[in-house]
Write a structure and sequence with these properties.
The strands form three sheets. Strands 12-11-10-13-14-15-16-17 form an eight-stranded mixed sheet, with helices on both faces. A six-stranded mixed sheet has the order 1-2-3-4-6-9, sandwiched between helices. A three-stranded mixed sheet has the order 5-7-8. It has 28 helices and 17 strands. It folds into three domains: 252 residues, 2-enoyl-CoA Hydratase, Chain A, domain 1 (Alpha-Beta Complex); 179 residues, NAD(P)-binding Rossmann-like Domain (Rossmann fold, 3-Layer(aba) Sandwich); 193 residues, N-(1-d-carboxylethyl)-l-norvaline Dehydrogenase, domain 2 (Orthogonal Bundle). By secondary structure, it is an alpha/beta fold. It is globular and about 85 Å long. Helix 25 packs across helix 27.
């Protein structure tokens, strides 16, 4: 498509209407930049120019596909400057989202008019960058430094109404074209260009306190701090600071952090379209049943209600059904209290929800998902009941974490409709949804799972069948190596600290205490009969469970906890138990550096991910990375374990894995080097 067709100029009287039409989000591609450059020339002679966009949004960012290529003229900073300096003043007429380069363009316009609810932001921080076309220099001059830090350093998106309050928008109007026509009919005096204004609230103390707070929140990610540094340059002349911003933006495009974050951005979109469903048509699901109203079932029901579905929650008796209803109402109420949901939306959700004690109530549901105890016979009974009461083509989904769906669905007729939908707790919050297909599952049923995940605003990833699927299988390997490190000389707090230093929100032992040690213990006991006798098995976690040290809820696990406080406290009793285990096994304990701990654990994660791809359980490395980022807290700015492996080099990761495997013979399978 030529740039002339991407940006159209139409003269109506003495008003020039400049329309960007570059679907889907009107990104500032090289063609759009050239089209805008030509438009600045084409509007000469008009009294005023109105910049608007076709489709569902104003300019919502740059074209990231260009970021790994040499920059192509005209460069966005030059285009933005041309708009600001144009003899004919521009009015930005905005709807949808005004993000990144789109916001930079809008700030160069003399006036800004927006539809209600239009979103504004500089989200470059989310892809490891800072703005590169004057965003960090114009924004504090437009809204003040405090608000600019809030926007540019966090990637936050503010609505038009908030931007009106901050003075960044001149008018919010329902009918944009009518509002713009009225505005340009009585055009006010042209204001001072934003780049020529001064920052009203610049203060070194504000920069310093913001830096400390951003460091804590960023957990190792550098782009929020880079953005703050660039904002601090706004005390300089714009003509001096803007080239500095541009140079830093271009340098950051080549950083490992930006590459990782861009990988995550594209991977999220890629994993939603696996080859298995390429030609499959999804069913439109509007009514679902959830069996089990505990924490998981209530979370699934809440996510479905938030996604606009009608939900029937099934429990074993009236008392349990009442408790489940209270649980779901409580979760929805929490959203109201946090300002995430209005009272009207809350009532709307309740109108689509019922909690019952009989399977017959599921008769009209198009899909049912069980969220009951992780016991094969219990789950089989649930599906026998559902199959008797639902349409023969209704989709049946298990939320199992470890059990084989083929065994769960044995005896069910029409197994093409059977699928795994593995939610992560709390299901109304966690973004990951593992969609598990069996050898019988029809592609249209898998496609329906992905469509449902989209309605529920999940990142859905396709998985084949193996113990733990993608995520929990990798978690088991991660924990196993952590236990080997414990047995050989490390202590829980050292391992946890090493992984937090890497960027994890918490280490493996803090995480176990948070989620509870019982489920993993039950799974280890379930696998005991089939475990390879040559595999090294460390019993320290089992010993903790035998002492009823099940984690935070028990007040003690790998750490101890004071009442009302979730902060882990190192426990000498656990240290003694670990050291006693090593002594009993004849292991001479040795010290491990934080780098050695993290590099071993990361090599194990990458190796297990490669095995999962090699076996065809996951389609590709992007699937593995998305599971780890959205289900297990792997730092997004590292891109996932497979991306991190590629960043440091596959040979380096493989060499570390070879050391791990050699020190525990018979315990590890090492992936082929081409995976």
């Amino acid at each position: 498509m030529s740039h002339t067709s991407l940006v159209n100029v139409e003269l109506k009287g003495d008003v020039a209407w400049v329309t960007v039409d570059n679907p889907p989000v009107n990104a500032t591609s090289s063609g759009v930049r050239q089209g805008l450059t030509d438009a600045v020339v084409a509007v000469k002679g008009a009294r005023v120019a109105v910049l608007r966009c076709a489709g569902r949004t104003f300019i919502a960012g740059g074209d990231m596909s260009e970021f790994d290529k040499p920059p192509v003229e005209p460069h966005l900073p030059d285009v933005v400057q041309m708009i600001e300096e144009s003899e004919v003043p521009f009015v930005a007429c905005m709807h949808g989202n005004v993000l990144g380069g789109g916001f930079e363009v809008a700030m160069a316009c003399a006036w800004r008019i927006a539809a209600p609810g239009t979103g504004f932001g500089l989200p470059e921080v989310n892809v490891g960058l800072i703005p590169g076309a004057g965003g960090t220099q114009r924004l504090p001059r437009l809204v003040g430094m405090e608000a600019a830090i809030d926007l540019a350093c966090t990637g936050k998106v503010l609505k038009a109404e908030d931007m009106l309050h901050l003075g960044a928008v001149d008018l919010v109007a329902d009918n944009l074209e009518d509002a713009v026509n009225r505005f340009v009919a009585e055009l006010p005096d042209r204001p001072v260009p934003v780049s020529q204004r001064t920052v009203s609230d610049f203060a070194p103390d504000l920069i310093d306190t913001s830096r400390e707070s951003l460091k804590k929140r960023a957990k190792g990610q550098q782009s929020p701090l880079e953005s703050l540094t660039a904002l601090s340059w706004a005390k300089m002349l714009f003509s001096e600071a803007q080239p500095m911003e541009r140079a830093r933006h271009l340098a950051l495009r080549q950083s490992a952090e930006s590459r990782a974050l861009r990988h995550a951005f594209f991977a999220e979109r890629g994993v939603s379209k696996p080859m298995l469903i390429k030609d499959a048509k999804a069913r439109d699901i509007s009514r679902i049943a959830v069996v089990g109203g505990g924490l998981m079932g209530a979370g699934i029901a809440t996510a479905a209600l938030n996604g606009g579905l009608s939900v029937t929650l099934i429990e074993r008796d009236p008392e349990a059904a009442s408790g489940a209803r209270d649980r779901v109402e409580g979760l929805l109420n929490g959203a109201v209290k946090r300002g995430k949901m209005t009272e009207t939306q809350f009532q709307n959700c309740l109108s689509r929800f019922r909690s019952v004690d009989g399977y017959a109530e599921a008769a009209d549901a198009e899909l049912a998902v069980e969220a009951v105890f992780e016991d094969l016979s219990v789950k089989q009974q649930v599906f026998a009941e559902l199959a008797q009461n639902m349409d023969a083509n209704a989709i049946l989904a298990t939320n199992t974490s470890y059990l084989d769906p083929i065994e769960i669905f044995s005896g069910i007729e029409n197994q093409a409709r059977c699928i795994g939908l593995h939610f992560f707790s709390p299901a109304h919050v966690m973004k990951l949804l593992e969609i598990v297909h069996t050898t019988h599952t029809a592609p249209e049923v898998v496609a329906t799972g992905f469509a449902l995940g989209k309605k529920l605003r999940k990142v859905s990833v396709l998985s084949g069948i193996c113990d733990g699927f993608i995520g929990n299988r990798m978690l088991a390997a991660y924990r196993r190596e952590a236990d080997y490190l414990l047995a050989d000389g490390a202590l829980p707090y050292q391992i946890d600290q090493a992984m937090r230093d890497f960027g994890m929100p918490m280490g493996p032992y803090e995480l176990q205490d948070l989620t509870g040690l019982q489920i993993a213990w039950a799974n280890r006991k379930r696998n005991a009969a089939t475990r390879d006798p040559n595999e090294r098995y460390v019993t320290i976690a089992d010993q903790l469970c035998e002492k009823e040290r099940f984690g935070q809820r028990a007040g003690k696990g790998w750490y101890r906890y004071e009442e009302g406080n979730r902060k882990p406290i190192r426990d000498p009793e656990v240290d003694a138990l670990i050291e006693g285990y090593s002594s009993a096994q004849g292991i001479a304990r040795r010290a491990f550096s934080a780098e050695e701990i993290s590099s071993r654990l990361l090599a194990v994660l990458a190796n297990e991910g490669a095995l999962i791809i090699e076996e065809g359980v996951a389609e590709n490395s992007e699937a593995v990375d998305m599971v780890q980022i959205h289900g297990y807290g792997f730092p997004r700015w590292r891109g996932g374990p497979m991306n991190y492996r590629d960043e440091i080099g596959v040979p380096a990761s493989r060499a570390k894995m070879d050391i791990v495997a050699s020190e525990s013979p018979g315990s590890w399978s090492v992936a082929r080097e081409d995976f």
